[in-house]
Q: What sequence folds into this?
């Protein structure tokens, strides 16, 4: 089974300081995280000792996450306009932040950072596509200087478009953080077909579930793992055949009891991968 370790997304726990994050992680019963690194570089006074506090409690950091500046997730339209590294107005600051995150990750042996790069233009002839490709090359090269790979989150474009973009970037240290729920939430295609297509490039998994929307142009709904539209037997069957071992990171971005939902996702996943 290519799943190596199971962890959780630190931002799922909505904690305001490193110690409360440590306490919440321990409450879930998990011992590993994907760590949100943007707060660490933007607010080092509050978050600067987070890595050390996690290490002191023997909580392993499996990967990092960069949240690009200026993103507005209030609607599909707003995130299409503001998301990732695509907007010109936020690119200089995001490039600078990427350097800080890459350096921090490299110093602490975190060898993978993921992010939503933004909605990729579908057409190879779109002038904006070449701009995004150049920025992705720069982003990946910045991280590679510190021995860190970059994984693009799925969902904001079809799997076919993402596959073409990866081919155009031409960097061995660029891959995919595959999130099946995001394909449903954004209405970007069947997650099973997407995983089959992107499988050779998958570096990490997000374990999350969702149901599709009945209203085109609006979000689907995130739900507890196992209660949505993801075909988990098919999904895990493909995961078993992935060409590399990957971490499975539980992400929960909705709901009133994140700890309980993460615990439920852990039981669900362990029951199907034992």
A:
């Amino acid at each position: 089974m290519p799943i190596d370790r199971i962890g959780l997304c630190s931002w799922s726990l909505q904690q305001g300081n490193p110690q409360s994050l440590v306490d919440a992680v321990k409450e879930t019963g998990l011992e590993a995280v994907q760590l949100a690194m943007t707060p660490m570089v933007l607010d080092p006074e509050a978050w600067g000792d987070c890595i050390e506090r996690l290490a002191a409690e023997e909580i392993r950091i499996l990967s990092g996450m960069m949240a690009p500046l200026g993103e507005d997730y209030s609607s599909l339209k707003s995130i299409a306009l503001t998301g990732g590294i695509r907007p010109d107005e936020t690119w200089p600051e995001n490039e600078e932040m990427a350097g800080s995150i890459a350096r921090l990750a490299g110093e602490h042996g975190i060898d993978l950072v993921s992010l939503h790069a933004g909605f990729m233009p579908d057409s190879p002839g779109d002038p904006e596509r070449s701009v995004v490709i150049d920025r992705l090359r720069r982003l990946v090269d910045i991280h590679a200087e510190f021995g860190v790979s970059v994984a693009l989150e799925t969902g904001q474009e079809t799997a076919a478009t993402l596959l073409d973009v990866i081919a155009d970037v031409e960097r061995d240290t660029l891959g995919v953080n595959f999130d099946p729920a995001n394909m449903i939430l954004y209405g970007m295609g069947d997650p099973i077909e997407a995983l089959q297509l992107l499988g050779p490039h998958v570096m990490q998994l997000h374990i999350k579930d969702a149901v599709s929307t009945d209203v085109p142009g609006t979000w689907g709904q995130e739900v507890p793992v196992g209660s949505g539209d993801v075909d988990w037997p098919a999904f895990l069957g493909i995961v078993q055949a992935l060409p590399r071992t990957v971490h499975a990171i539980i992400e929960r971005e909705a709901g009133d009891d994140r700890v309980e939902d993460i615990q439920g996702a852990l039981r669900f996943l362990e029951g199907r991968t034992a």
